[in-house]
UniProtKB/TrEMBL annotation:
Protein name: 3-oxoacyl-[acyl-carrier-protein] reductase FabG
The family this protein is said to belong to: Belongs to the short-chain dehydrogenases/reductases (SDR) family.
This protein's encoding gene: fabG_5
Keywords noted in UniProt: Oxidoreductase
Domain Ketoreductase: start-end pairs: 11-189
Listed InterPro entries: KR_dom, NAD(P)-bd_dom_sf, SDR_fam
Keyword match Oxidoreductase: yes
Annotated source species: Nereida ignava
Gene3D superfamilies: NAD(P)-binding Rossmann-like Domain
Taxonomy of the source species: Bacteria, Pseudomonadati, Pseudomonadota, Alphaproteobacteria, Rhodobacterales
CDD domains attached to this UniProt entry: SDR_c
One annotated GO molecular function: 3-oxoacyl-[acyl-carrier-protein] reductase (NADPH) activity
EC annotation from Swiss-Prot or TrEMBL: 1.1.1.100
Length: 253
């Protein structure tokens, strides 16, 4: 159960990748607050929207598309505003942590990975700033502890994660005069279905849990509370920050 942030009731929230994994948990959590949620995703999310409507009595607005299509991404954000009112919160959640080695990277693969994991974040922030300029709002960018750990196996992904942190700090400074807050959240290894299907093994998970202070695997729901807080006026003087939620693998400060 989440605490209730009363100011999120009827708030217009836009989530990238909001139909699966952590994104689906975010859609669920914001709907539970009474927020109006729109999300973009590549795959059909009708069944998920049906389930959310049955659970909450409110249907999220699913806008199908690819976040690397910048014009379409901005158009779906405009659709969300038309349907739900002025944008209160943008959550840049969609990402791709496809495994790769430096030796196998081609220019095309580099461009695609950066387009998904960094470029789309920037242009969503750019458009959100225009949409929020009158009323203010909160932007939440998903990073990861992977770059803090210096993990191998996906160097473009960790490069983008580090870039997201730098971008968050700069945009917080730039957007602050319009009362737009920009923060980042850096999850640890969250056991989404995709992670379980592709990369979780008993040995790898045991080794990672051994690094955690808290010896419980992270689930998508473990990330949502912090995002509700960062979207709410409960954090109204918090901006330019990165919040780590990883069970205690890395330390900050």
């Amino acid at each position: 159960m989440h605490p209730t942030f009363h100011d999120l009731k009827d708030a217009s929230v836009y989530v990238t990748g909001g139909g699966s994994g952590i994104g689906a948990a975010l859609t669920d959590a914001f709907l539970s607050q009474g927020a109006k949620v729109a999300f973009i995703g590549r795959e059909d999310a009708s069944a998920f929207c049906d389930a959310m409507e049955q659970k909450h009595g409110t249907r999220p607005l699913f806008l199908q598309g690819d976040i690397t299509d910048t014009d379409h991404l901005k158009a779906t954000m405009d659709q969300a505003v038309a349907a739900h009112g002025p944008l209160r919160c943008l959550i840049n959640n969609a990402a791709n942590d496809q495994r790769h080695s430096t030796a196998e990277v081609t220019p095309d693969f580099w461009d695609w990975m950066i387009s998904v994991n960094l470029k789309a974040y920037f242009f969503a922030c750019q458009h959100a700033a225009a949409l929020m300029a009158k009323n203010g709002g909160s932007i939440i960018n998903f990073s990861s502890i992977s770059y803090m750990m210096g993990n191998a196996g996906y160097p473009i992904y960790t490069t983008a994660n580090s870039g997201i942190n730098g971008m968050t700090r700069s945009l917080a400074r730039e957007f602050g005069p319009d009362n737009i807050r920009v923060n980042a959240v850096a999850p640890g290894w969250v056991l989404t279905q995709k992670q379980k299907d592709l990369w979780v093994t008993e040995e790898a998970l045991a080794a990672h849990i051994d690094r955690q202070c808290l010896k419980t695997p992270l689930a998508p729901d473990d990330i949502t509370g912090a995002c509700l807080f960062m979207a709410s006026d409960a954090s109204k003087m918090m901006t330019g920050q990165a919040m780590v939620i990883d069970g205690g693998v890395v330390t900050t400060g």
